[in-house]
Design goal:
Helix content of chain B: 40-55%
Number of helices of chain B: 8
Order of helices and strands of chain B: HHHHHHEHEEEEEEEH
Structural class of chain A: mainly alpha
Number of strands of chain A: 0
Strand content of chain B: 15-25%
Oligomer: heterodimer
Strand order of the largest sheet of chain B: 1-2-3-4-8-7-6-5
Distance between the termini of chain A: 64 Å
Distance between the termini of chain B: 72 Å
Strand content of chain A: under 5%
CATH class of the largest domain in chain B: Alpha Beta
CATH architecture of the largest domain in chain A: Orthogonal Bundle
Number of strands of chain B: 8
Order of helices and strands of chain A: HHHHHHHHH
Radius of gyration of chain B: 26 Å
Number of domains of chain B: 2
CATH topology of the largest domain in chain A: Arc Repressor Mutant, subunit A
Chain lengths: ~180, ~260
């Protein structure tokens, strides 16, 4: 089997998943499409170095994240958009009342609101939470992608989840669903 | 009773059952875990409806030289693999005419395709002798113009040996102000457009430098990165010639 055919059968099936990741990074379709294209071109160039027994989804995600970081740095240099965000501790929960039945509460939000809330998180928290929850990668894989210790992934995931929750509580208040004292 | 840490709860979500006994006894940790799981599920559900446009797969497949799985859409080649060019260009040319004839469709094009179309339009505009064009052959005066308009001086080829600068102008590319100058060459007129965007195709290594090639309608394009900018040479001349022209802008490559 040629490299091209192997790439087609091993890597190409993840294009949809990588688009979702790109969307989580960029927050809009145009940039996400460009990022996916860049990622697959880069992956094709580097495919010889891919360990065929390893997790291709994680390998592609690592390439995509590196591409995205490169773009952010380039844009900083050329005076465009977005600072690189650093991992920050989540604010304490603002109001626990609404979470007594969290699944019901979460159904009040549209998909767009949930994604928008995720996009408000810093890049490290956002990427970690996305890769763990949506891509369902292991903490080990995410640690490799993010180039951090597994313990950092665990604490970062937890902080990201709290931050996401706080953001959604904020939306709920705006929508008039929340705000009462316990 | 000591409760589970957030990190331990994250491990449980990942499938680690070592703390399951505590969860049987502790209502608080059970609720904390349920909340985390609910958030994870909601996030996953939200992204389940995010789907890429079908054209993206087509773009990537065509760029990688893989067989198309879908019916081809009207599009131009965005990634130039020299070996495939001859066959692809004839198909692309027919599609391009439609795209150019219906400007509104530009907004529906994939970003990389639209970018190439815009570059070709800038070249066309430069050729039209419009009033925005600053006609000037003196490199020093062109440099002064760019300094005043853009705040920096783009690299330009040295006139002579058949090359002559014709002038320059300020244009808009993907919503940003960019500089463009025109060079008269023995092969034809070439516009060089200096943008901050990065090329969106697989580069080809030549003379120790990566060049990106593309085409739109009759225009050929070659791009090279230099000092944090992308220099796009556009004209109805060969990729080889455009590459040679851009090579003159680069610092001398090591032997």
């Amino acid at each position: 089997m040629t490299d091209k055919h192997e790439f087609e059968s091993i890597a190409m099936p993840y294009m949809g998943a990588m688009y979702k990741f790109a969307y989580a990074l960029c927050g809009n379709s145009d940039n996400a499409q460009d990022l996916v294209q860049d990622t697959f071109l880069k992956a094709f160039e580097k495919f010889k170095s891919f360990d065929k027994g390893s997790n291709c989804r994680a390998w592609l995600a690592a390439i995509m994240r590196n591409k995205w970081i490169d773009q952010l740095r380039h844009n900083q240099v050329t005076g465009q958009i977005l600072p690189l965000e650093h991992d920050i501790a989540a604010k304490p929960a603002q109001n626990e009342t609404e979470w007594s039945d969290c699944r019901d509460f979460l159904e009040k939000f549209s998909d767009e609101q949930v994604i928008k809330a995720l996009l408000t998180l810093g890049e490290e928290q956002r990427t970690t939470l996305f890769l763990i929850d949506v891509e369902q990668l292991s903490q080990d894989d995410v640690a490799k992608i993010m180039d951090v210790a597994v313990g950092t992934v665990k604490s970062r995931t937890s902080r990201a989840r709290s931050a996401l929750k706080n953001e959604l509580i904020g939306y709920a208040k705006e929508m008039g669903y929340a705000g009462g004292e316990k | 009773m000591s409760h589970l840490t957030d990190e331990q709860l994250e491990e449980i979500i990942q499938g680690d059952n070592s703390a399951s006994e505590h969860l049987v006894e502790c209502q608080l940790c059970k609720e904390r875990l349920a909340e985390k799981r609910a958030l994870a599920d909601r996030l996953k559900l939200a992204f389940s409806k995010v789907e890429m446009a079908g054209q993206l797969e087509q773009r990537i497949r065509s760029g990688l030289g893989l067989n198309s799985r879908m019916s081809p859409e009207p599009k131009i080649k965005i990634l130039n693999f020299r070996a495939h060019w001859k066959s692809i260009s004839a198909i692309a040319a027919a599609a391009i005419i439609l795209i150019v004839a219906v400007p509104v469709s530009m907004r529906l094009m994939a970003p990389a395709l639209a970018a190439q179309a815009q570059l070709a339009q800038i070249h066309e505009h430069n050729m039209s002798g419009n009033h925005e064009f600053h006609s000037e052959a003196d490199p020093a005066k062109l440099a002064e113009y760019f300094k005043g308009k853009l705040g920096f001086i783009p690299s330009m080829p040295t006139p002579g040996r058949g090359l002559a600068l014709r002038g320059c102008c300020i244009r808009h590319f993907r919503g940003k102000v960019v500089g463009s100058y025109v060079v008269e060459t023995p092969e034809g007129i070439v516009s060089v457009i200096v943008v901050t965007d990065t090329p969106k195709s697989m580069g080809m290594k030549r003379k120790d430098q990566t060049f990106w090639e593309g085409s739109f309608a009759k225009c050929e394009m070659v791009t090279v990165s230099l000092d944090g900018f992308s220099y796009c040479a556009v004209g109805e001349v060969s990729h080889e010639y455009l590459t040679d022209l851009l090579s003159q802008l680069l610092p001398d490559s090591p032997e």
